[in-house]
Amino acid sequence: MDGFPFRAPLIEGKLQLSEALFEAIGTKIGEVAKVEVTRIGDEPEVRVPEDLLAALAGCPPAFALWQDVTPMARREWVRWIASGKLEATRIKRIEVGLDKLTKGMRRPCCFPGINFVTKDLVGPEETWVTLPGSKKGA
């Protein structure tokens, strides 16, 4: 939602979203937001925003490393870029990210991942799907 990756159940055609998730995203209940819906079973990888995909396509060295890094690393790059509140910040982070990937950096520096962005407002059940056979809370 508005560039923030999350997981939520779809029940009777309605997404079940908590107030904490809206707060973490920075969108208020009742406001218009861009939402992309995919099925969990069809989408094991993080959804890469279109602007980042276009930038990667225009920079073959960065794209080559992007394809080589782990899915978790790609998720961290997407979270780092999408966590900027201003469009100018997002654009700058894409530029910096391409430069870092071109230089061989496999993960964004100094970004502690989704826990930092959500500040413990969103539970893991709203952002990641528990894998079959995994231990609850692990």
Supply database-style keywords.
single chain, 138 residues, mainly alpha, two-stranded antiparallel sheet, 6 helices, 41% helix
Detailed description of the structure:
- The structure is a single chain.
- This protein is mainly α.
- The protein has one domain.
- It is 41% helix and 3% strand.
- The chain has helices spanning 19-25, 50-57, 60-68, 71-82, 87-102, 114-118; strands at residues 10-11, 14-15.
- Strands 1-2 form a two-stranded antiparallel sheet.
- Strand 1 and strand 2 (14-15) form a beta hairpin.
- The longest helix has 16 residues, at 87-102.
* Helicity, as a percent range: 40-55%
The radius of gyration over CA amounts to 16 Å
Per the principal axes of the C-alpha atoms, what is the gross shape? Answer: elongated
Structural class: mainly alpha
Order of helices and strands: EEHHHHHH
Give the averaged pLDDT, no decimals.
77
Alpha-carbon distance between the two ends: 26 Å
Q: Number of helical runs?
A: 6
Ranges where pLDDT stays below 50 over 5 or more residues in a row are none
User: Domains counted in the coordinates: how many?
Assistant: 1
Secondary structure tally: strands: 2
Beta-strand content: under 5%
* Major sheet attributes: 2 strands, antiparallel
For the largest beta sheet, what order do the strands appear in spatially?
Answer: 1-2
List the helices and strands and how they pair.
Elements: E1 10-11, E2 14-15, H1 19-25, H2 50-57, H3 60-68, H4 71-82, H5 87-102, H6 114-118
Antiparallel strand pairs: 1-2
Helix pairs in contact: 3-5, 4-5
